[in-house]
Amino acid sequence: MSENKKPEVKHEKQVPNNVIQLGPTKCLAESCSKKPVKASFCDEHFEWFKAGLITKEGAKAADFEKKHYHFMRSKKVA
Ligand SMILES: [Zn+2]
């Protein structure tokens, strides 16, 4: 007697791995190559943006030096 065993064929679902994310892949701020987290900025530069140090395009504000100075001071509360 012979048993005819069908080989088990499993159809595994292939998960497509071609999801392309549009938009910037780098933080917009000058010379920053971190991954953007919020509003196309990395965490650090999003803080800058919120503080008015840089525009939403990542350009420095007109009085960046002054703002940055105060920004850094306000951060260094220890
Ligand atoms: Zn950044």
Describe the model:
The termini are far apart. This protein has one domain. It has helices at residues 43-51, 64-75. It is an all-alpha fold. Zinc ion (ZN) binds at residues 27, 29, 32, 34, 41-42, 44-45.
What's a quick, concise take on this entry?
The chain is mainly α and 78 residues long. The chain has helices at 43-51, 64-75.
List the keywords:
78 residues; mainly alpha; 27% helix; 0% strand; rod-shaped
H and E order = HH
Q: Got a strand count? A: 0
Average per-residue pLDDT, rounded, comes to: 85
Major beta sheet summary = none
**Helix count from the secondary structure assignment:** 2
Binned, the helix content reads 25-40%
Overall 3D shape: rod-shaped
The distinct bound ligands, ions and cofactors come out as:
zinc ion
Could you tell me the strand content as a percent range? under 5%
Question: How many domains in all?
Answer: 1
Distance between the termini: 85 Å
Uncertain parts? none
List the helices and strands and how they pair.
Layout: H1 43-51, H2 64-75
The structure holds zinc ion.
